[in-house]
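User: I'm designing a mutation panel for Reverse transcriptase domain-containing protein and want to avoid disrupting the core. Could you give me a predicted structure to guide residue selection? Please restate the sequence first so the numbering is unambiguous.

Assistant: Good idea. Sequence first, for numbering, then the predicted structure tokens:
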Amino acid sequence: MEKKGPIRFCTLGDENTKFYHTVASVNRQKNSIRLLIDNGVEFYDNSQKLTIATSFFRQIFSESSSSDRDFALSQLYPQPENLQDLCLPSTREEITKVIHSAPNNKSPGPDGFTNEFYKKFVNKLLPDLQAIFQDLFNNSIDLSGVNHSYITLLPKIATAVQIKDFRPISLLHSVPKLISKTITIRLQKEIPKLIDPMQSGFIKGRSITENLIFASELVQSALKNKKLMLVLKLDFYKAFDTVSWDALFRVLETRGFPEKWIDGTLILLKGETDQATALKEILDSFTRFSGLQINYHKSTLVPIHLAEESKEMVTQILQCPTSSLPCSYLGLPLSTTKSTHNMLLPVISKVDKYLAGWMPLSKGGRLTMINSVISAIPTYYMSCCIWPEKSIEAIDKIKRAFLWQGEKSIKGGHCLVAWKTVLLQKQQGGLGIRDLRAHNTGLVLKLANRVLTDSDDPMAKWFRQKYLQSTIQLKPRNNDTPTWKLILSHFQILSSVEQVKIGNGRTTLFWKDQWMPQHLEYTYPVLFSFAINKECAVESQFSHNTWQLQLHPNLSYQAETELQALLQNLQTISPSPETADTRELLYPKP
């Protein structure tokens, strides 16, 4: 009976039958807003509901009326950037590229034109579009005729009866969407000039998990050194349209934009009341200048090593609730220990809930869903920590049941093939489902590789300056943080899959990394057994422009022979102090 509805929908869903019209009626009733409750009063009349919605969203999407905007922007940004290329005339090639990069299957706006329409008739539309873009960059066009949209309200929860429970979605005219996409593509080339190096979100090659790693390092350091610290997780109201346009235009002008152009923050500070007072004043000034409102009721304060009296004073100053570690930051657990199964339960629950609506799919459809969607959900959470086996097994259990039976749970007898075989590539007889343990290891290896190779990456700089100032050290020390211990544990795996091009030799293992045609520990095994430090860096074996290997005395005859052969091969190689080591994969990507 549970699958009867989906079966009928497959056979009768698009026919002109009673079943079709019943489904349409149910969907229409489900999508309509029957009533709204405002201040405890129920409203059923459409005009009254419209008044409530208009008043609510007008208040949210309105500019702050405050005039306290006295930031000295010229001191923050003393040298404007050269951004004149943003206003160059649009070419036919640029417009064509923008049109073909637009996604398909998107709802049209008031003009009724979809992206597919523009792609099909791009050659006929190009002259008119180029004229529009030309007038746009010459400030000689009036867009008021197309500057309106269809607005629909989507419920945030199943029982939405208050206007705050709905999310407004705008369907724009196609021309403004093409204009904004063109501007976005142009701006992408200039963004590196404008952003701070510490900005990690929405930057190609970077990840917001870097912020979690920085936060974890600082919190763990404070705990180990018994320092007072306050961790304040700020929550901004979602009403981003309350940003002051005047303030925004002033920032754009100061950064060098031509006249034609004109959620989650974590703050760590010393655990002192005067620091909290100064921060509150700064946040209040920022709010008055920008119009962005901070939701202190949803913000979280985590005191570390603070006495109860100090906690109460700081809480009173910042006016937000307190919490303790571990806590959630950017959707990830901020903790001073390894990730536990309990910390990852929300992710497992997310996978379980997502599959609930897809049980009726065919087996082939379920396989596609697992490969394209479900296996990707844990990726974000696996990028900076190693998952416990219990957590990986919990997700694999959900995937097994969904694949073989389309159910939430399954007994072993219903599994047609061993799970290890299912995880193999299709060329090897499997189904190509992602092995989460291997995937997790690969993501952490990527993190470790960045530490060893990215000279300009702020996160890599942090770890190198903190842990690799002198030379690489594979053995963890007592005061090392869990994050660094995690990275260290994967350096050895990197040695087996990467070829190193020597720079200064600081991050390359002399014996165990492949910076010569073969690993030296295997090419000269007897000599390797005499090494004082088998995990030494290349830099440590080179001094005063000559190779000086650190070996135990009284070498055997075979070791002496291997030493002479090695020194002969090293004659043409010397580290360059000003250049960083670089790495590349020994094996091509599949």
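For picking mutation sites, this is relevant: The chain has a mean pLDDT of 82. The first helix runs from residue 4 to 12.
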